[in-house]
Amino acid sequence: LHISNYVNPDAVCVSQSWYLASDFQLNIIAPLFLIPLHRRPKIGLLLLGVGIAASVVGATVNAYLRELGSGFMLSEFSASRTSDLSYPMDHKGIHYRLSTFLMGICLGYLVFNVKQNKTTQNVSKRLWQVGWVFCIIILAALVTMTVILVDPDHQYSSWLDPLFVGLSRPLFCLSLSWIILACTLGYGGSVNRFLSWAGFRPLARLTYGVYMIHYFSFAYQLYGMQVPLSFSFIDYTYLLGGDLITSCTLAKVLYLAVEKPCCRLATHLLRGKQKRDSLEETHQMSDFKTTTPKASG
């Protein structure tokens, strides 16, 4: 399971579970960056920068050499690839997803230092506003380019498509990082109030279940069709609503039957261990006080 994105990636029984393998592998290599970042921050930041640059350049060069179009992720059998088995490596391999993971570490390190008062916040309000403008422009550009480049009639561009493949994820991650940083430091405004809405909390508990289940909902719907689907806004809105309700309902069942009981069990086991550790420390302190001779008056 934890190496399925590299070993027989086309034979995974639950195709969307590739993320579990990717997440596991990224967390395994995380200490290579976290330990230097803790002990030698400058060296750690340098390693993070090199890792991000290497991942972005590698993804871009790979897309250029293999002529991967921007829409290669939409189909596992694109004519632009040299073999059908290239898709998992291009989409699921951590060597091309490392950049966003390391950017997340950088963001966490920055937020931690700010909260610990190790980094000053001497940034003018005007600069924060400029940052928001660039953030919105980047997100809007990514959405626009996605619509253009994944169009079936789009003609492959030897420079535009590889750049989009290599830079789209890091730029999207950079924009989200800015939003998180601004909201954390009190410069989020209405965006922070919207994202902090209490109504998102119950939905947040279902997100992973929706991720694991939605593919089956789509597959059951598409494979069961007897006639071609007509393209219209009303039809797709209806299908989207049905898929969303079905996925959320099944995700709720999955959360109550699996995720919540496992979380409760883990909490109970960890709490018991913490109590035992606390009792051992108390006994050790008592023994120390008993064996320590009192000073004579």
Describe the structure.
With 297 residues, the chain is mainly alpha-helical. It folds into 2 domains: 3-74 and 85-195, no CATH class; 197-226 and 235-279, no CATH class. The protein is built from 11 helices and no strands. The radius of gyration is 25 Å and the shape is globular. Mean pLDDT is 80; it is low at 75-86 and 288-292.
Low-confidence stretches: 75-86, 288-292
Q: Work out the helicity level.
A: over 70%
Q: What is the global morphology?
A: globular
Query: Overall pLDDT, averaged?
Result: 80
> How many beta-strand elements?
0
Q: Return the structural class.
A: mainly alpha
The N- to C-terminal Cα distance equals: 68 Å
Q: What is the alpha-carbon Rg in Å?
A: 25 Å
Taken in chain order, the helices and strands follow as HHHHHHHHHHH
Number of alpha- plus pi-helical segments: 11
Please give the domain count: 2
* Range of strand content: under 5%
Largest sheet: none
Domain Acyltransferase: 13-216
Pfam families: Acyl_transf_3
Biased composition (Polar residues): 287-297
Biased composition (Basic and acidic residues): 277-286
Question: Helices, strands, pairings?
Answer:
Elements: H1 18-29, H2 31-39, H3 41-65, H4 86-92, H5 98-115, H6 125-149, H7 160-184, H8 190-195, H9 200-204, H10 207-223, H11 233-291
Helix pairs in contact: 2-3, 3-5, 3-7, 5-7, 6-7, 10-11
Organism: Homalodisca liturata
Domain Acyltransferase: 13-216
Biased composition (Polar residues): 287-297
Supply the key terms.
single chain, 297 residues, mainly alpha, 2 domains, 70% helix
